[in-house]
Amino acid sequence: MIKYRELEDLLNEYAGKNSSVLEIGSRPGCYAFAHHSVIHIESNIENLKGLDLLTTGSSLPFKNESFDMIFMVAVDYYVEDHEAMLAECQRVLKKGGRLIIATYKQENLAHQVATQDEAWHAFSEDEYAARYKKAGFNNFVIDKIINNPPQNPLKRAVWHFIPRGVLMLRSQWRIYSGIKI
């Protein structure tokens, strides 16, 4: 899994201090959190180093109001019952807790859904906003992050001179977040 530096910074900013964090669809250790307790869950990869629990996002084995923040990166479109997953996130988040879904923009998601048997849906930004609201989240925000620099040294050198605004236009990522009411 690729680690996006801007996403890690955003996750840490949203987590605040001394938060309990749940990562759904985990790649343990990919995103570093200072001063936080992080639980990593996954639904289909048993031999993943650092994995805490094998379960699905639609059935979380935690007590109500257990976490300050829940996040998932490039995962939610693989969840068949999206409403059940949002309901479970709502249940296990503390009041004022934040749910963050980092995913590809809709055009890229549509390609994923069309070409992969496991991918179920490709929601638009408006559909994400409606789903968050229906599940009981407010303060819905859409953030974008810039893709990491290319690996090719020549392209990487050029990338650093491209204005941030232009890079944001090309961003493939959308970060959706909302606060539990």
Automatic annotation (TrEMBL):
Keyword tags: Methyltransferase, Transferase
| Gene3D superfamilies, per the entry | Vaccinia Virus protein VP39 (3.40.50.150)
Q: Sorted alphabetically, which Pfam families does this protein's record hold? A: Methyltransf_11
Single GO BP term: sterol biosynthetic process
Please state every residue range assigned to the domain named Methyltransferase type: 55-101
Keyword Calcium attached? no
| Record field: transmembrane | none
Molecular function via GO: sterol 24-C-methyltransferase activity
Which SUPFAM superfamilies does the record associate with it?
A: S-adenosyl-L-methionine-dependent methyltransferases (SSF53335)
PANTHER family annotated for this entry?
A: HYPOTHETICAL LOC100005854, ZGC:194242
Protein name (Swiss-Prot/TrEMBL): Methyltransferase type 11
Which organism is the protein's source?
Answer: Maridesulfovibrio salexigens (strain ATCC 14822 / DSM 2638 / NCIMB 8403 / VKM B-1763) (Desulfovibrio salexigens)
The record lists the lineage as: Bacteria, Pseudomonadati, Thermodesulfobacteriota, Desulfovibrionia, Desulfovibrionales
